[in-house]
Each structure stands twice: as structure tokens, then as C-alpha cells.
Amino acid sequence: MGGPSPVYRMFNPPCHRGGMKWGMIITLGALACGIGAFMPNGPMAPARDQSANSTIPVGFDPATADAQGSAPDYLSGEMVLQQRQDGHFYASPTVNSVPIEALVDTGASVIALTGADAEAIGLNWDQSDIGIIGRGANGPIQGVQVRLDTVQLGNFEVHDVDAMIIPEGLHVTLLGQSFLSRIPNVEIANGQMNLSEY
């Protein structure tokens, strides 16, 4: 075989320091190169919700969501995430009522779902839905822009959350700013990430 695919290289660039070979560990720096620099190019073809057999809206505008009667966010209490040995924070959010595992990425503009996680929560798309949805430091990012009904982490539940599906090349879902920015207080100190309502 000829080595890693171009998509793998986009999200896992080679590391030339210290003799390390292809990125076996996804780092926030590499993710920031691929996803964190995400700049939307406008709405793409919608993904379909298999569970409801309906279309999930794209191009979500938070400014108009409340006027359209979306459910209010529920933000209560405090949650503490511990930094793992790899230096990252991980969480187990529930997305559209389905639990998944995610890397908490404060540098990602939106939630970025792996293809497997998107399928697990009932999102469906076909090849014609996939397009360039942004540009990162390593080139174009291909995927599908979607809006999630709910994302819940502990006692924090937010509605109508921007996300994108990255069908190939992303190995862990990223919990980005489209969720984190709606938590009133997020602080990182001493190996802990604290999310709180105050």
C-alpha cells in the first residue's frame, strides 16, 4: 500500500520532531490545523434524520432560533473534567438522545462529528451531500453541515446546535465552541476543565 490517505494526512499531519512518525495521537494542535480553523462556506446539502425520516436544517442562525420557538437551553450546576495522560479533556455528551464520546476542543468552532458517531445518532447523508464546508491550514475540509436538536453534558443541555459531519479522516468527535460558548463559564486550570452556570 502507498501509506496514509490524503484525508488521514489532513487531520493527522506528520510530526518531524523527536523522530516521531505519522501522528498516532491526535493533538489539539493538529485538530486546530484541520478543524479549529474552520471557516464556513455557506449552507450545504442537508443531512437526513433516519429516526424521524425528516430533513435536518442547515445554516442555523442562533439569532433567529429563539424567535422561531426553539426550546430554551437548560444550564445548571457545575461539571469538572479531568485532563487525561495525553493532555486532552474528554467528555461523554448525549447528542439527540444518544450518548457518544468526544474530545473537548476549545479551538474548534463547531461540533465535528465522526461519520460513525453521526450514524449512531441517526443522521444520514449520501455522497452528493458532501462538499467543502471550510478551509483549514492543511486545505479544504469536506463534510456536511447540520444542526443538532440537543446536546447534553451533565446538567447542561443546549438546543439547535451547529455541527458538521466529517465522514472520513476524523477519528474522534470534537466538542467545539457551538456547544462550549453557550456554557456561562468554562475555565481550565491545574489539569481540570470546569464548566459552570456562574
TrEMBL record:
Pfam families: gag-asp_proteas. Keywords: Hydrolase, Membrane, Protease, Transmembrane, Transmembrane helix. The keyword RNA-binding does not apply. The chain crosses the membrane at residues 20-39. InterPro entries: Aspartic_peptidase_AS, Clan_AA_Asp_peptidase_C, Peptidase_A2_cat, Peptidase_aspartic_dom_sf, Retropepsin-like_bacterial. Residues 100-179 form the Peptidase A2 domain. Its EC number is 3.4.23.-. Gene3D superfamilies: Acid Proteases (2.40.70.10). This is TIGR02281 family clan AA aspartic protease. One of its GO terms (molecular function) is aspartic-type endopeptidase activity. It comes from Croceicoccus ponticola. It comes from the Bacteria. GO terms for biological process: proteolysis.
